[in-house]
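Weekly modeling sync, notes
Attendees: AB, CL, MP (scribe)

Item 1: holo prediction request
CL wants a bound-state model with magnesium ion before deciding which constructs to order. AB pointed out that an apo prediction alone won't tell us much about the pocket. Agreed to run with the ligand included and paste results into these notes for async review.

Input as submitted:
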Amino acid sequence: MLPTPIMEEMYEQMVTARYYEERLQEEYLEGKQPAFDISAGPIPGELHLAAGHEASGIGVCAHLRDEDTVTAPHRPHHIAIAKGVDLNRMTAEIFGRETGLCRGKGGHMHLFDPDVNFACSGIIAQGCPPAVGAALASKKRNDDTVAVAFLGDGAISQGGFLESLNLAALQGLPVVFVVEDNDWAISMPKERVSSIENGAERAVGFGMPGVRVDYDDVLAVYDAAEAAVERARAGNGPTLLELQVHRRMGHFMGDAESYRTNEDIDWADKQDPIPKLAADMRDAGVSDERIDELAASARERVEAAIEWAKEQPLPDPETAYEDVFVTEEPRRPAVPTGGDD
Ligand SMILES: Cc1ncc(C[n+]2csc(CCOP(=O)(O)OP(=O)(O)O)c2C)c(N)n1
Ligand SMILES: [Mg+2]
């Protein structure tokens, strides 16, 4: 059994991630009802929640240091929290504020924190090539930093991912690819887009180990990730991990999930990794009072970050052309896009 301080830390982080998303959901819905106006309210634009994915981000990042690089996909909050991204500035970014990680220009899918080498993107599998680049830099510097690229099961046939596996294996780079398998890509079930059930088998064709953790459990993820990260740090090359997680929410906020059965939603609920970890902690002798204390401290941290973010100033419109590649005003105003992904 894992030492209890490690379990406690992971529990606090998992509750932080879950509660953070519950609070974001409340803030997000403000002003958007009844017709679901995606541009209204304190958090305009899309929001993809990762409730049910916590075991992945938290179990993997438990082995990482600030100097290690992490790239995450469009469902990034649990991974960002586990990597130690500044929660206040991340929240300010999500609320579109000037003091946000990207001065309020990126939003929830485009968080970037150079202090802990974290980035995410709304383009699926996009994080794989930059993670391989970071791993190549580690190898050239001859240090023991590693890179981890998180992606979804819907991205495992993307060229960017497959080419990254090849380059990483060929060059023996210190990188771990982590597929979060929640069985869905928006409304598309996994079996309709991949001829293999176990995505970790992709690794075989590239000559690297592929490991699947097929139940939603942070302690199992912790063990699998430990081996993969150690292998990378020791200079023995990349690993592909596929982790079974569950999407407890719609693909994005506002998704009516008409394509999903109630049984599937109930199943996701029953697989919740947070009460599972609490049960393991009790078995290891952690008291209920201690577990409640950890949850309370997680909730306090989240409330403080949301309160701070909401007090932050909105960006001055004059700054819209700063920090971007295009410096001239467009001939036509940009057309706002709807939320179909
Ligand atoms: C290259 C690219 N193609 C399509 C999309 C639209 N899109 C956004 S999320 C998504 C599905 C992602 O599914 P998965 O990778 O399994 O992640 P999940 O949402 O299940 O966490 C798609 C197709 C995109 N963002 N990028
Ligand atoms: Mg998926």
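Recorded for review: Strands lie at 69-72, 112-113, 118-120, 147-152, 175-181, 184-185, 188-189, 210-213, 239-244.
Action items: CL to compare against the apo run; MP to circulate these notes.
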